[in-house]
Design goal:
By secondary structure, this protein is mainly α. The protein is built from eight helices and no strands. It is globular, with a radius of gyration of 19 Å.
């Protein structure tokens, strides 16, 4: 079973879970753009939580990191709901697609801003560099696709697309907070720093998002060469 098959199955499963909420939104008149905006506000809230944690929480207190992860995960569901509201409610529009893409980029950049701020304020320099590399890769994956589609080239290849990035980032932060909470007093005596539960998924994002960006450039190169030869 390929990764794409697993990804599509998971996506359809999530759609089945959220569709009752989607139908409820449509009934009360909620628009796709409203759902998209709500997702952005959720990511802004998560970033604010992370900045606050960086400024005021103790170095061994990861509870707010966990809360931020939960908010990011919930906001990611809104990112899936807006498309479903548009499709099921027959409210698709060209501007809506543009609005969704723009706010997705804002959401991701704001989320990484919060993570980078937290890591740098708690002196996790290596983690900050990894998070910043993940930010660059995430931005470039989206940029290459947008630029390719502007040249009439379909470009959806690669592993680390937005849903994967959101899941890895949010679950990393959420599990960091949960582990730190349940490890309790033993954490102080342990050499393991729970922040690595967040940093390791970010490392995966940093590596594979940048690989995906270059894979998309390579894909576009091959498509253009074929167009020139035909």
């Amino acid at each position: 079973m390929s990764f794409k098959t697993i990804r599509d199955w998971l996506q359809q499963t999530i759609y089945k879970i959220i569709n009752p909420a989607v139908h409820g939104m449509i009934k009360v008149g909620i628009t796709p753009n409203f759902v998209t905006t709500t997702g952005l506000l959720g990511n802004i809230a998560a970033a604010c939580v992370l900045v606050y944690a960086g400024l005021y929480s103790a170095d061994d207190d990861y509870s707010l990191v966990g809360w931020a992860g939960g908010i990011i995960l919930l906001s990611g569901l809104f990112d899936m709901m807006d498309g479903q509201v548009a499709r099921i409610g027959n409210m698709k529009s060209t501007f809506g697609a543009l609005y969704d893409s723009v706010l997705d980029r804002y959401s991701e950049l704001i989320t990484f801003f919060g993570i980078c701020s937290y890591l740098i304020m708690h002196h996790h320099i290596g983690g900050f560099i990894i998070a910043f590399a993940a930010l660059i890769g995430s931005l470039m994956v989206s940029y290459v696709r947008a630029r390719a589609e502007g040249l009439d080239i379909e470009c959806k290849v690669g592993l680390m697309q937005r849903p994967e990035r959101v899941v890895l980032t949010s679950l990393g932060a959420l599990c960091c907070g949960i582990y730190a909470h349940f490890s309790g007093e033993t954490q102080a005596a342990s050499a393991f720093d729970p922040i690595w539960i967040l940093i390791v998924p970010l490392l995966f994002v940093a590596i594979f998002a940048n690989i995906t960006a270059f894979a998309r450039v390579r894909h576009c190169y091959k498509v253009m060469k074929n167009m020139e030869n035909n």
